[in-house]
Amino acid sequence: MPADSDRAGHLRGPLTYGWPGPGRLVISADDYSGHRIPAYFTQLDRKSIPLLERGFGWVEEPYGR
Predict the structure, then answer these.
(1) Between 65 and 13, whose confidence is greater?
(2) I need a labelling partner for 40 at 20 to 30 A (CA). Which of 17, 28, 50, 65 fits?
C-alpha cells in the first residue's frame, strides 16, 4: 500500500527511519489523524533463536491415519 494512502487507519506521508544506537532501528510515520507512530526494533543474536540455531525437522504423519 502506498505511504500516502488517505483511508482511515493507514499511513499518510513518508516513512522515516533511523539508527539511534548499535543494533537498534526506529521506523515512524504519521497516521491519518496526524499522530506520529514509531516502531522500535532491536537486533537479536541469531544464536538466541532456537529454530535458527538447531534447524527445523519436519514430522511426517503415518499414511492412513
Answers:
(1) 13
(2) 50
pLDDT, residue 17, reads: 93
The per-residue pLDDT for 42 is 95
Question: Does pTM surpass 0.85?
Answer: no
Q: What CA–CA distance (Å, rounded) separates 41 from 17?
A: 11
- Decide if 6 contacts 13 (C-beta within 8 A): no
The domain of 56 spans 1-65
Q: How many CB atoms lie within 10 A of CB 10?
A: 14
**DSSP letter for each residue of 45-63:** PGGGSHHHHH-----PPPT
Q: Give how many domains the chain has, as a whole number.
A: 1
Of 32, 27, 26, the closest CA to residue 4 belongs to 32
pLDDT above 90: residue 27: yes
